Q: What sequence folds into this?
């Protein structure tokens, strides 16, 4: 009995415990992630030149679920196109002009729509360059299945699947991407991954057009103090790209997004197991003392 | 045909639990990868949102989340509470209720993965002849003394702390404190082969402490569950949440009068939550806040038609002497499996043979 009370007391102690100032949102926190979903590394300064590929860099504001700013890098485009997964039909595809700070985009409707697909495009006589990314507005909304299935430009890199809401790409994880040309899967196509920390890897698509890439374990072990919030330190950008000649044109398409530090780095399985065992030990008195057997069979 | 497949209510419930364990832990295989594809985000059972393969989320996740972000943080900005702020929470409750209405608290006894796991651990305990411990006078003390804990956890960890965190009073790490101590988070992720949630967060004292509590609870549940039935359910805030709504679902436990009740207390003995009221009371009071609608009391009540599982006007199951007689042949009310006993009884005439 005492041990049980103890366990209960432990469980409730959070209620009365003193509080000290601390600010940490926690990358793996399910509920917490909503205020800083994937693709919104809050407060991060414009990326240094870690890639020559075109990028769409998103920036949201804390608590802002309907608006974000998308900066276009390495590509000249007058507008970005935002495709939404749900919402009113006429708002499913909207062009936003690119200003000095980038394009100020909105979710499909004020309280609806989570997954949005963003594209910027630069076309000259012989080349088409496309930058693309996904943006999560943190509103309730449909799954992006249909949004991703619809072709949005000629050469595409399509996440298959996107990390679901409140999740993100992470170091040391394998993710699949589909490469399409004019809506058809491209087999044997090379996809290159570059990360903000300087890693570079390639994969080739299989017969179904899928390339599987492993996110490198390349976060710097010690975080630089001061310059950015802990949130930003745990996330970095990456870009995938693929190129193809077709119909006398050169197509280059990039998909960029963020990936985060392997959460196991900040976690200890040893401590976890230790407390599990503590709980087990605490419960053993329950097993020892046997109840006097009053023979339930007597009721029959 | 149905009779041969499911000769007893328990057998039927077992089949449902196996199916629901699959849906609540591995359901994404069927329903799909994205959160929006899930069955719902407001399930009245601890189907954990941290489990990357589940088929739906428990209602406590959006509740903590909305109290934290949509109410707490919004109050700071607007300096008042508006209808707009509580709307998402009301919608969550409404979604919850759409599910809850259908089978009410049977979400605990029939669907919840953590309930099912605890029950199976208990079965192992009975198989190995570990003595059953109960919350009753003379053993662990009256069950009434434990009951308030789940209400405290619900109010404190699901509503109060997330609200205070949203208001900026408590640190950010306390935004979803119940999830942090929830054993289902650890248990269901482990079932998908993921040890991430078992590992404790280093460098954040709050998260570390709360995670340590969760792991201690899980350890306690694994071993304590061998002797004490449903140890975590007794303090589960979702049980408290569900019992707020329990009279609003047509599915309920009915013991209209005590006329034929022989006060034999077998139902209480059969009850995994050690609820004394089911034998000592009738009417409203017999359907206690702790009830998980598992139906064991109805199965083990030896009097015809005294305890019933009802959905609206329909009695889905009704206690009967005949059913009881057949049932105790295989399993005693306290869950002891009969073959073990048979060895014991058969040994008696042979005088001095060792106990099983
Ligand atoms: S941790 Fe527990 S309360 Fe939180 S989502 Fe998972 S099951 Fe629900
Ligand atoms: S009381 Fe038990 S069965 Fe019900 S939700 Fe809680 S853990 Fe699950
Ligand atoms: S009162 Fe009956 S239905 Fe409710 S938990 Fe106890 S045995 Fe199960």
A:
């Amino acid at each position: 009995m005492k041990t049980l009370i103890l366990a209960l007391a432990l469980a409730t102690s959070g209620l009365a415990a003193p509080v000290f100032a601390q600010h940490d949102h926690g990358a793996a926190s399910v509920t917490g992630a909503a205020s800083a979903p994937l693709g919104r590394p809050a407060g991060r300064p414009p990326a240094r030149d870690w890639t020559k590929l075109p990028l769409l860099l998103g920036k949201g504001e804390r608590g802002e679920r309907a608006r974000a700013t998308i900066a276009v890098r390495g590509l000249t485009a007058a507008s970005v196109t935002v495709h939404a997964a749900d919402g009113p039909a006429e708002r499913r595809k909207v062009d936003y002009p690119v200003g000095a700070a980038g394009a100020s985009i909105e979710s499909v409707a004020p309280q609806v729509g989570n997954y949005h697909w963003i594209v910027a495009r630069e076309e000259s006589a012989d080349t088409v360059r496309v930058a693309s990314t996904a943006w999560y507005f943190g509103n309730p909304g449909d799954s992006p299945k249909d949004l991703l299935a619809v072709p949005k430009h000629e050469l595409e890199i399509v996440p298959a699947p996107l990390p679901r809401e409140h999740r993100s790409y992470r170091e040391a994880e394998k993710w699949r991407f589909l490469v399409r040309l004019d809506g058809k899967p491209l087999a044997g196509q090379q996809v290159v991954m570059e990360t903000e920390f300087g890693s570079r890897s390639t994969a080739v698509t299989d017969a179904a057009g899928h390339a599987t890439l492993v996110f490198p374990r390349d976060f710097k072990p010690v975080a630089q103090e001061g310059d950015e919030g802990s949130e930003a330190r745990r996330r970095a950008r990456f870009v995938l790209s693929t190129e193809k000649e077709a119909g006398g044109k050169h197509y280059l398409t990039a998909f960029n997004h963020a990936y985060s530090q392997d959460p196991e780095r900040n976690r200890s399985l040893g401590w976890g197991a230790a407390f599990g065992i503590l709980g087990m030990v605490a419960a053993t008195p329950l097993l020892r003392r046997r109840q006097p057997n009053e023979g339930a069979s007597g009721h029959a | 045909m149905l009779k041969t497949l499911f000769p007893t209510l328990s057998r039927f419930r077992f089949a449902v639990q196996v199916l629901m364990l699959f849906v609540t832990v591995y359901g994404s295989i069927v329903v799909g990868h994205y959160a929006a594809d899930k069955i719902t985000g407001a399930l009245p059972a601890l189907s954990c949102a941290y489990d990357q393969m589940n088929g739906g989320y428990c209602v406590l996740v959006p509740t903590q989340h909305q109290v934290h972000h949509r109410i707490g943080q919004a109050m700071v900005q607007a300096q008042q509470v508006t209808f707009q702020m509580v709307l998402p929470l009301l919608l969550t409750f409404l979604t919850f209720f759409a599910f809850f209405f259908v089978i009410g608290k049977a979400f605990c006894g029939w669907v919840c993965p953590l309930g099912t796991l605890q029950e199976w651990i208990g079965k192992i305990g009975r198989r190995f002849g570990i003595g059953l411990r109960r919350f009753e006078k003379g053993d662990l003390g009256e069950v009434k003394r434990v009951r308030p804990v789940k209400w405290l956890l619900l109010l404190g960890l699901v509503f109060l702390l997330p609200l205070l965190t949203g208001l900026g009073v408590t640190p950010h790490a306390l935004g979803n404190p119940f999830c942090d101590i929830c054993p289902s988070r650890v248990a269901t992720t482990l079932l998908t082969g993921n040890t991430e949630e078992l590992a404790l967060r280093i460098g954040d004292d709050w998260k570390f402490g709360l995670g340590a509590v969760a792991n201690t609870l899980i350890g306690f549940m694994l071993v304590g569950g061998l002797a004490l039935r449903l140890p975590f359910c007794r303090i589960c805030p979702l049980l408290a949440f569900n019992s707020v709504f329990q009279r609003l679902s047509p599915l309920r436990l009915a013991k209209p009068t005590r006329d034929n009740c022989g006060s034999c207390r077998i139902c209480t003995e059969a009850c995994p939550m050690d609820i004394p009221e089911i034998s000592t009371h009738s009417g409203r009071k017999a359907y206690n806040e702790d009830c998980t609608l598992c139906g064991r009391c109805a199965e083990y009540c030896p009097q015809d038609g005294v305890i019933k599982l009802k959905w609206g006007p329909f009695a889905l199951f009704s206690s009967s002497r005949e059913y009881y007689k057949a049932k105790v042949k295989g399993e005693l009310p306290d869950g002891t499996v009969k073959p073990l006993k048979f060895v014991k009884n058969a040994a008696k005439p042979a005088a001095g043979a060792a106990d099983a």
Observations:
- The CA atoms of residues 34 and 138 of chain A lie 6 Å apart.
- Chain A touches chain B through 70 residues (CB under 8 Å).
- The first strand of chain A starts at residue 55 and ends at 60.
- The longest helix of chain A spans residues 269-288.
